[in-house]
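Hi R.,

Here are the chain sequences for the assembly we discussed:
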Amino acid sequence: MIRTSCLSILLLFATSTLFAQEDLLKLLGEEESGPEYTSASFKTTRVINGHSLENTAHGVLDVRINHRFGTLDEGLGNFFGLDQSEVRIGFDYGLTDRIMVGIGRSGYQKTVDGFAKYKLLRQCESGCGMPITAAFVASSSITTLEKEFVPWYSAERQDYFTHRLAYSFQLVLGRKFSERLTLQLTPGVVHRNLVEYNEESNDVVNIGFAGRMKLSKRVAVNAEYFYVLPNQLREPTPAELAADPNAGPRNCLSIGFDIETGGHVFQLHFTNSTGMFERAFITETTNSWLDREVHYGFNISRVFTVHEPKKPKG
Amino acid sequence: MKIQNILLPAAFLVALGSSSTTAAAQDRYMTRTGHIAFHSATSVERIEADNHKVTSVWDATSGAIEFAVLIKAFEFEKALMQEHFNENYMESNTFPKAAFKGKLTGITAEQVKQPGRYDVIVEGELTIHGVTKPMKSKGTVVVDASGAVKASSAFAVKPEDHGIKIPGMVRKNIAEEIQVQVSLDYQKM
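And here is the predicted structure of the full complex:
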């Protein structure tokens, strides 16, 4: 009895030593590692016009130059819109890996806008089990046009500073499903302190759909659509419709490519919106894809590491 | 009788088990906090990264040595460099770890217990980006008066050898050979 036990134990011992020499690292067992967050769900912090799941990293300054030419339907005379342009110049900065802030100035209604974005949830590859990323974006904009040029101008109306303000709040929810595919949903509300027409509501509830598909390591195709829930924006009158069958408020639809070249990301796209901040592209898009009123445009993002956060050693 | 039947083999098991682990423990060394740094220096750009979570086990009796290196644990000064390193070059979602498996020669298990400085040779197979290549490098093992064992080595790796494609546009930014330095504080197992 004892003999057989000894024999089996010896055998066990012999095989275990043999095995150990085959794979030394197995002796250490599985490593305990912290959560590993999903990265690079989009090439940059914007899909096209709207915010993506990504944040500027801690200590990184992102200089963004956005450009929208005129519309393609202007034909050869205006070189298919390339004779005109709208520009937004912006500076974004990552206060931490989860909080970023940014400001921008657009030629469109001479608007200054600013935002803060906070990552509430971060999708994990391993270590925490979180399936999605969620970010909250709060932004505001102010038009600095002279009072005679604001859209709601009338001689008898007092020009209050607060009338020029608008806000947008969005929850960016999404998931990087695979190395190539990311999808996101962006419910939000734009609040305008003053609107041009009685029929318009000050709060405009909207929902954004966006996605990207990587074509190669450095090139991706992005698409984005902002749906404005009905009965919030003014519909055109019959007279206006007679003049232009496609008149009226339009949902913003954009499609384009991201090309990453190291420190730069170039976003080249077609979009029916002119403005490049939330109030403008969600509530003030009137151009129609059906009428070929589509802008060719690009965003250029260049990042600079301004501050190097101390990384824990060991 | 019944109790004896169970107890006797159990006692043997404990005795054998404990003696076998102590015998091995004297000769095996490990770390989970090894340091690997690499740098690529060109006139255009200097790229550096550190990984302080390198796992290694070394059996001083047989000379067998192994490494496992989590690619995502390499930390860069620039966040975007780190993202591109993982996403575009190392494809760390597909190939999460680099590994080395080989032999360390030039030091005996007895020498590791005595203070001194030993020149060693490490030879084996290096797997990066899913591509395994033979590798041989000089190294040093230093045992100090307190018995602490430190091992270090430096070698160069060509990204192309491991199937890492570097586009022409950034070819000038990345050195042909990446200089790698390994330094480990081994602990007895």
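Helices of chain B lie at 2-25, 79-89. Chain B touches chain A at residues 5, 8-9, 12-13, 16-17, 20, 24, 28, 30, 32-33, 50, 52-53, 55, 57-59, 62, 64-66, 68, 70, 72, 75, 77-80, 83-84, 86-88, 93-94, 167, 169-170, 173, 189 (CB under 8 Å).

Let me know if anything looks off.

Best,
T.
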